[in-house]
Amino acid sequence: MVINTNIAAQNGARLLTESSNMLAKSLARLSSGSKIVSPDDDAAGMAVSMRFDAQVNRIGAADANVGNAISFSQTQDGFLKKAAKALNRMSELSILAQDVTKTDSDRALYNAEFTTLGAYIDDIATKDFNGVSLFDGTALDVTIDGEGTTFNMAGVDVTAAAYTDASGSTVDTAANAATALTNVQTAITQLASDRATIGANVSRLNSTSEQLGVVKDNLTAASSRIRDVDVAEESTNFAKFNILVQAGTAMLAQANQAPSAVLRLIQ
Fold it and tell me: Which element (helix H / strand E) includes 142?
């Protein structure tokens, strides 16, 4: 029996330190909700999870871009819906102005309304969305994923000849009314085509937004499987390490008292 070197106490202290470290790590995992509290817990897993998190954030930003593009297109369609109503009335007025029982004085009254509606069509061409022109015909490249891929969203040009010819027409004479009718019919055809284009844009963007949502959910789940702690499992580990720390503390106290038995030999 020796008193200078207490091997049992050294072993007990080492094991107690290990158990205390594991208890502290288990407590950190439970309190943070993450099973990777430091890079040495899972170096590769942490790296993969960080890349997943960055990709999820980029997808969220792309989804915001797509949502704004949808709002842009819906605003376009809102204006064109009113333009369609104006053009429909203008076509009606151009027919009324061709009535052989009407005089040019009567046609002047029709023409006042007709030209006012034409000015309304011209005014729509000047509208913008957050400083971006709605109807200058420029196609917009919308970022649709986290890698910067873009979708070329076709533009609508209300300054095109089909619209300006109609808005610039008059119905003050029977001949002008006949010409105006032709121009307005052309504008209505163009408007139908433009609204169909907007509808196609919105349909594509809605599909893209839904796809981004699915991808974001899947990537978040993948990151969660790597990083998030299993509370039930970790609670069991916490209880185990807590018992080991208490037992180790008790046994270290016993080991530290073992050399005192030597004193009995020299009494």
Answer: strand 140-143
Helix (H, G, I), strand (E, B) or coil at 160: coil
CA atoms of 263 and 7, how far apart (whole Å): 18
Amino acid identity at 149: T
Alpha-carbon span 139 to 243, nearest angstrom = 68
The angle, 0 to 180 degrees and rounded to 10, between the axes of the packed helices 174-227 and 43-96 is: 170
User: Both tokens of residue 179?
Assistant: 């010409």
**248-263 pLDDT per residue, tens:** 888 777 777 776 766 6
CA distance 93 to 98: 9
SS3 172: coil
Q: Is 100 helix (H, G, I), strand (E, B) or coil?
A: coil
Q: Over the stretch 55-97, which tens digit does the pLDDT of each residue have?
A: 999 999 999 999 999 999 999 999 999 999 999 999 999 999 9
Backbone angles phi, psi at 143, to 5 degrees: -70, 125
Hey, CA dihedral for 206, 208, 211, 216, is it positive or negative? negative
Q: What is the pLDDT of residues 176-219, one digit of tens each?
A: 999 999 999 999 999 999 999 999 999 999 999 999 999 999 99
Closest to 76 measured CA to CA, from 123, 128, 150: 128
pTM of the predicted model, to two decimals?
Answer: 0.79
> What class, spelled out in words, does domain 44-227 have in CATH?
mainly alpha
Give 130-138 contacts, CB < 8 A, sequence gap 24+. Answer: 132/72, 134/72, 134/75, 134/76, 134/79, 135/76, 135/79, 135/159
Is residue 101 within 8 A of residue 67, CB to CB? The reply is no
Any residues with CB less than 8 A from the CB of 100 and at least 6 apart, and which? 174
Query: Strand, coil or helix: what is 251?
Result: helix
255 three-state secondary structure:
helix
pLDDT of residue 1: 54
